[in-house]
Amino acid sequence: MPVFSRFLRYFIAVAQQGSIRKASDELNIAASAIDRQILQGEKLLGTLLFERLPTGLRLTTAGELLLSSGLRWTRDLRALTTQIDNLKGLRQGSADILVPDALTKGFLPAVLGRLRETHPGIVVNVHVRASRDMGELLVDGQADFALMFNPGHMRELFVRAHKEIPLGFITPPDHPVGALETAPFSLAEEYPVVIPAPPLALWRPLELLEAETGIKMQVVARTDNIQMIKSLVSEGVGLGILSYLDAYDEVQKKQLAFTPILNKKLSPLTLALCVDRSRQLSMAARLIISEIDQFFAHQF
């Protein structure tokens, strides 16, 4: 049961999303119920918390003060919960994790599956977000830690561990490129390829590599969905270009093959395990991190 009132939870969601409709989608609560709570809260406080604009809702000065206090109370509650979890030991507890879409299959579900067997009392809340948004979410106290690609510099963040993830061609297992240990980028000119599109992180280094090498990729499809790239490759549309983690599960099951692209101008992606410097991690979060550390130590 939530400790804070429905009003405060709804208010924070609306303030962060900028509209009641978006908050409704996030909370899975009827928009009318959220609006009613906001109106009742404004009546109780005797002041408007939002300016109603044609483009959405904007916090008033009073609303900004309440949001700041509400977020601080939320962080304080999380810190208290962490301390209580530590008193319980590892029998119970919870952890919130931010992960990119690429980790929804493969090693992370396997790690969490093993955790369920050894520590059934621990609840793990996994939030799938874009890497570019994770830093602010961590600092706002929305999660215990994040696994993000190519983290930008934020003074409040600490990178506990990182791993370089190679980029390469994704092919059916019986494709001749799949039999190679490494492959030159020039193969993207010889074979039809399916490539990532924005906002996927990989589109930018591929665009730069194409410009710097003068190699014109034989693009037959672009998509901003990793699963669609793998599906198109499986259907024989073309070679895919992804990171190893994007196809980790299929490669382990021998449904697809991964061949690293060998080119000095193509930098690998960096997968980083990041935490808020000021946050005390619960025992549950530390346990999950220790399991992830084993994967980071693994050589591809």
TrEMBL record:
Record-annotated HTH lysR-type domain positions: 8-60
Keywords assigned by UniProt, alphabetized: DNA-binding, Transcription, Transcription regulation
Coiled-coil residue spans: none
One Pfam family from the record: LysR_substrate
InterPro entries to which the protein is assigned, alphabetical: HTH-type_LysR_regulators, LysR_HTH_N, LysR_subst-bd, WH-like_DNA-bd_sf, WH_DNA-bd_sf
Domain of life per record: Bacteria
Assigned protein family: Belongs to the LysR transcriptional regulatory family.
Name assigned to this protein: LysR family transcriptional regulator
